[in-house]
Write a structure and sequence with these properties.
The complex is a heterodimer of chains A (335) and B (342). Chain A contains five helices and twelve strands. With 335 residues, chain A is an alpha+beta fold. In chain A, a hairpin with an 8-residue loop joins strand 1 and strand 2. The longest helix of chain A has 33 residues. Chain B has four helices and 22 strands. Chain B has three domains: 125 residues, no CATH class; 88 residues, Elongation Factor Tu (Ef-tu), domain 3 (Beta Barrel); 98 residues, Beta Barrel (Elongation Factor Tu (Ef-tu), domain 3). With 342 residues, chain B is mainly β. The chains are: A alpha+beta (335), B mainly beta (342).
Chain lengths: 335, 342
């Protein structure tokens, strides 16, 4: 559990305290979903809350209860140090934390401006998560990926890996064919290069296209000559969570719901569709600007017993291929 | 069966072929009445078929006239009641793309429309009828292995032929080593989303050139497609070209380009394996058409059931749930509160 220094709460009385911090309680993989939800729904919530807080601050200022009294109120002074109580990592014993509060400069500055203009509005920005949304987030994500996968799979040029079974496992030369084809079609790479560093066992990574693959092929990828695991990147923290590694100018992202076609090879094996894409090869179109949203109706609206909640999502996004020449399906089987 | 669980019902006149019924939701039971047979009292004629969740595909409990009268008896269609097995009801979810079980092939001809003889019983997920899509595997015709084909000229449980003509014969006969898998009963079930990619079987050298696809294409006039022709198929002048479709029939369309001076198209033979097949990829449409607008966005998969029959053998069709030509059929389907194995 991280400790949150809610510094801005110190200066509620000066008008900037509208800013609230809510912590995300779910994995970062759903951040994009949450943000979409946040965009659609939370603005109104925070606008409302902003007015409530504004009124509260106004009242506190006049009643002398403002937290502003905790800080020194001389313009441009940086001489104040706050003693603050924050939660410990175990959440059992609060510990005292001395925090140099440079924000006081801002606080005083805002106060001056406020005294000039009488009032100040600051946009509230926050992100928050609903625990119940985690599962529905997965459903949403899966549906979205499925729709992308199906649309892409049915509409792209295939290149069969060439050896023995038809197709067979991926080789470095297959990756070269894909890369060359995308380059010849003027597809931009998606990721920038990762510069080499003086670290043992690492190697620089070229700017690269993405290959969207199944987790089933990870074993094969490991065995390909020239395959660079993501922990061998000079800066592995820049790799995506789902990334497995890179071969030349192709970085592989894997998913348990990656595309596959059962019983589809020469020898009746499952064929894995490794969809290789360049920048902006496909897009997600928001219909009438609606995109997608989570719906959470708390139980309080159900009745006095608060028995039922509603959780769901609306989904009005459509994946489309923007340029078919920038998408290639590299079909492969397992070794 | 509690009739108040009915979720949908309907009626139709049989064409003597398998009938596909789309449903709004999943069902746990289906009941079918052949009104024509009920009134006719023909001996062995099936009158009512009932399918419950838990029964096998192509199965049903059926009532029939056990004599040339209104006397009714019951049996399952797989047991039959005239010395032969009949066809029943198969639930279908077209979003499931798992092909049927492998069925052994006895042989396959070396022609541009190979004819395959089967040596095994059809897969449990469906049986091959004209217009079905099958996948060939493990045969000595390695250039056809792993590809999907529309089929025609069916002798039930005995043989089928690839419906769409290849530019070149495979180069070798298929021995008894291979198999086929049932992929889909028709194009409607096979395709789930637009655009629909197709492998090319043949391109004529003509003005305009005409493209034949391995699986019926279902393209419409006005659609824009890109033709990919790898070096192995030789008509490389056409590779990457964007063309407008003019539909000729289910399997062919013309492309508005004079290909008569191009290198002749070939379908790689078995010694060319492995190869990347030539393909057609829809990328758009003429502005005066509007085919893609809905189809590309819509998941066309559906839940439903197939009322199966035999279009060739009248004695089998007489007792099958799909009926014979011109039979008046009524059906109802419903959902149970629960359908357990207890």
């Amino acid at each position: 559990m991280n400790v949150t220094y809610n510094i801005f709460s110190n200066i509620n009385g000066s008008g900037i305290g509208l800013m609230e911090t809510f912590r995300l309680s779910i994995s970062s993989i759903y951040k994009s979903c949450i943000v979409k939800f946040h965009k659609l729904v939370t603005n109104w919530f925070f606008i409302f809350k902003k007015w409530i807080n504004t009124w509260k601050q106004f009242t506190e200022c006049f009643t002398g209860n403002s937290p502003k009294k905790l800080i020194l109120f001389s313009p441009f002074a940086l001489n104040s140090i706050c003693k603050r109580d924050t939660a410990s990592e175990s959440l059992q014993q609060p510990f005292k934390n001395w925090c140099f509060c440079i924000i006081k400069l801002k606080a005083n500055f805002v106060s001056i401006i406020r005294s000039i203009f009488g009032f100040i509005f600051v946009n509230a920005q926050a992100a928050f998560g609903i625990n119940e949304s985690s599962k529905i987030g997965i459903i949403y994500l899966f549906n979205f990926i499925h729709s992308i996968k199906n649309v892409v799979l049915h509409a792209v040029k295939s290149i069969k890996v060439t050896e023995m079974d038809n197709p067979t496992e991926i080789t470095g030369s297959d990756v070269d064919v894909v890369t060359r084809t995308l380059l010849n079609n003027d597809a931009y790479t998606i990721m920038d290069n990762i510069e080499g560093e003086d670290k043992y066992g690492t190697a620089p990574v070229r700017d690269a296209y993405f290959a969207l693959s199944s987790t089933q092929i990870t074993g094969n990828l490991n065995n390909i000559k020239g395959f660079l695991q993501k922990n061998q990147y000079p800066a592995p923290m820049n790799a995506l969570r789902s990334e497995w590694g890179a071969i030349g100018s192709l970085r592989f992202l894997v998913s348990s719901i990656g595309s596959l076609t059962e019983h589809s090879s020469n020898l009746d094996q499952t064929v894995y569709n490794n969809i290789c894409v360049g920048m902006e090869a496909y897009a997600c179109i928001e219909q009438d600007g609606y995109s997608a949203s989570f719906i959470y109706r708390p139980p309080i609206y159900d009745g006095p017993l608060a028995l039922n909640i509603s959780v769901g999502y609306k989904f009005a996004e459509v994946p489309r291929i923007t340029n078919d020449l920038w998408v290639i399906n590299l079909r492969s089987t397992l070794a | 069966m509690a009739s108040n669980t009915i979720t949908q019902q309907g009626f139709f006149t049989s064409k003597g072929t398998d009938k596909f019924i789309k449903l709004r939701s999943d069902v746990d039971w289906v009941k079918v009445y052949n009104v024509t047979n009920i009134e006719a009292s023909t001996q062995w004629a099936g009158t009512t078929w009932t399918w419950f969740r838990g029964m096998a595909n192509d199965e049903a409990i059926t009532e029939f006239h056990s004599a040339a009268s209104q006397i009714a008896s019951q049996a399952t269609v797989s047991t039959g009641y005239n010395g032969v097995a009949y066809h029943g009801i198969t639930l279908i979810d077209s979003s499931v793309k798992t092909p049927g079980a492998a069925v052994s092939l006895a042989s396959g001809t070396d022609t541009t429309q190979p004819l395959y003889s089967t040596s095994g019983a059809p897969g449990t997920l469906g049986r091959v009828v004209a217009g079905s899509i099958v996948r060939i595997q493990n045969t000595t015709q390695t250039n056809l292995n792993g590809l999907d084909f529309s089929v025609d000229t069916i002798t039930p449980d005995t043989s089928f032929r690839l419906a769409n003509t290849l530019a070149t014969a495979p180069g070798v006969i298929a021995g008894a080593l291979g198999s086929y898998r049932f992929v889909a009963p028709n194009i409607e079930v096979y395709d789930m989303f637009m655009p629909k990619k197709r492998v090319i079987a043949k391109i004529t050298a003509a003005s305009p050139g005409v493209v034949t696809t391995l699986v019926d294409h279902s393209y419409q006039t006005g659609q824009k497609v890109r033709i990919h022709v790898p070096a192995g198929s030789e008509m490389i002048e056409l590779d990457g070209q964007l063309v407008t479709v003019t539909r000729v029939d289910a399997a062919t369309f013309s492309i508005g380009i004079d290909t008569s001076a191009y290198t002749a198209f070939v379908f790689p033979i078995y010694t060319d394996t492995p190869f990347t097949a030539a393909s057609v990829i829809p990328v758009g449409e003429d502005t005066s058409y509007n085919y893609l607008a809905d189809g590309a966005l819509e998941n066309t998969a559906f839940l439903g059931f197939i009322l199966q029959t035999d279009p060739v053998t009248a004695a089998i069709a007489l007792g099958s749930a799909g009926g014979t030509a011109d039979d008046i059929m009524i059906w109802e389907a419903g959902k149970s509160f629960s359908a357990t194995a207890e």
